[in-house]
Task: structure prediction
Amino acid sequence: MKEKFFSGIYPYIVTPFNDKGHLKEGVLGDLVDHLIHKGVHGLTPLGSTGEGAYLDWPTKRRVIEVVVEAANGRVPVIAGVNNLTTHGAVYEAAETEQLGVDGILAVLPTYFPISDQQVAAHFKAIARAVSCPVVLYTNPKFATWDFTIDTLKVLVEENNIRYLKDASGNIGKLMSIVTAVGDRIKIFSASAHIPMFVFMLGGVGWMAGPACLIPEQSITLYEMACQKRWEEALNLQKQLWPLNVAFQRYSLAACVKAGLEMQGFPVGVPLPPQKQLDSEGKKIVEKILRDLGALNI
Result:
């Protein structure tokens, strides 16, 4: 079997709900088709923007089924696995692979503090439960832990742990990772980063919520980076950066869902108790999208 290699723009797609909190399968399928037609290189359901941490397993399962069916092999699907327990994460990872995804995005939410050894053991168990490539995901802003360099050195010994999406926003840390284990693991940029700088460090793509709203612009930025057209890339990055700033100020899911509603996708609002985007936030997001040419209304 040919080894899969993930690179490029992978939108963290939202999970559309109606006002009773039920999945809107048709809207999700339409969004998948739209993003693929725009040229994205892959799709990531059940990430932070997809509210994966808030969903029960039956809903997660159906989200994966809808995305895999709608993608129909046109682009890779890397689905999020998000469970507080190692047993639960192992179960969901194995089940997710059986649903036809191309890779797993593994994150560990926490309640009680955990040690580096426990972190390593959790992700090792997930990797050994599947045969597909695994993307490690850390978001220290919302968790009580972060990968240390030593932990990553241990984890990259697992054959199918091939990628890291680090949402720390710390470019210096990424430089340390690239220096220490860069030949063993490939880096995806996150919403908290300046993607162009991650590309300059050798990052292979951008896996984040903003690409749902600006897929074409995100792809252009990636292609400029691949061609090392850094001055043009910097100018485009400056134009795109206000959207990242809005995401830092407001909730990711709320921003992306509000923006998609403006673009004509009735994705609904984030599940309670998450906060919807308020009127001020909607005005800010709308102006940003208009300035970027991402609104037709």
In short: The domain at 8-247 is CATH 3.20.20.70 (TIM Barrel). The longest strand covers residues 161-166. The CA atoms of residues 36 and 74 lie 8 Å apart.
